[in-house]
């Protein structure tokens, strides 16, 4: 079922989130003080408006209580992010997600009532470091402080075997949630899927257990 989102700030993060949410058939209102940014995204969201959220009357006119989720992607102005967060909290928006460039910035927004803080530059740094640390890793997504999802190229000695036979859960305490084969993502009957050259397995588990797969993979490739 479609949900309604309001996105404050149409920078790199805000515009990407807004466009993707709209592409997934959600209602999206994008808000930014910069009229050029508003024009650039107007075709890719339900509604885009130019507004200065430092004006309390503007925030009241947005009807924040009607949205399922607010994304506050304002990284350049802490004051504006604070105003947007407070307004969303007071309006009772069920989910408030705020972008923060620093931990201190994020801590302030969290105390004000934001449900989740994202640190784009830090998160991208973690993903890049993990992807560079081993050639087998295609990508890494942090789910929480100690858990993540990793996409890993199939090791040579895994080829021709099924996920059930390799029993990653028993050996590494991780779950296989999908197999990427060319442009296709296999998510059903994974246990009996025979792995092929060029496949990538998508694992979910703790960072510690995911590192164990890295270690074994690295040793076998050398």
Automatic annotation (TrEMBL):
GO molecular-function terms, A-Z: monoatomic cation transmembrane transporter activity
InterPro entries with a match to the protein in the record: NAD(P)-bd_dom_sf, RCK_C, RCK_C_sf, RCK_N, Trk_Ktr_HKT_K-transport
Superkingdom assignment: Bacteria
GO biological process terms held by the UniProt record: potassium ion transport
Gene3D superfamilies associated with the record: NAD(P)-binding Rossmann-like Domain, Regulator of K+ conductance, C-terminal domain
Domain (RCK N-terminal): residue spans on this chain: 2-122
Domain RCK C-terminal: 136-219
Name listed for the protein in its UniProt record: TrkA protein
């Amino acid at each position: 079922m479609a949900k309604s989102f309001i996105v404050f700030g149409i920078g790199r993060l805000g515009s990407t989130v807004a466009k993707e949410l709209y592409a997934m058939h959600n209602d999206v209102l994008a808000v930014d003080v910069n009229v050029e940014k508003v024009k650039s995204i107007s075709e890719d969201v339900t509604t885009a408006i130019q507004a200065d959220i430092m004006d309390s009357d503007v925030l009241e006119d947005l009807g924040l209580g009607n949205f399922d989720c607010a994304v506050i992607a304002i990284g350049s102005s802490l004051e504006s992010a604070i105003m947007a967060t407070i307004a969303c909290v007071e309006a009772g928006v069920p989910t408030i997600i705020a972008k923060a460039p620093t931990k201190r910035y994020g801590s302030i927004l969290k105390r004000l009532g934001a449900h989740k803080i994202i640190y784009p530059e830090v998160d991208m740094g973690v993903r890049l470091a993990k992807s560079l640390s081993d050639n087998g890793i295609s990508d890494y997504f942090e789910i929480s402080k100690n858990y993540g999802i990793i996409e890993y190229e199939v090791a040579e000695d895994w080829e021709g075997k099924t996920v059930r036979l390799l029993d990653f859960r028993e050996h590494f305490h991780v779950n296989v949630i999908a197999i990427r084969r060319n442009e296709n993502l296999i998510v059903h009957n994974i246990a009996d899927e025979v792995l092929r050259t060029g496949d990538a397995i998508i694992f979910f588990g703790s960072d510690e257990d995911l590192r164990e797969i890295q270690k074994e993979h690295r040793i076998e490739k050398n």
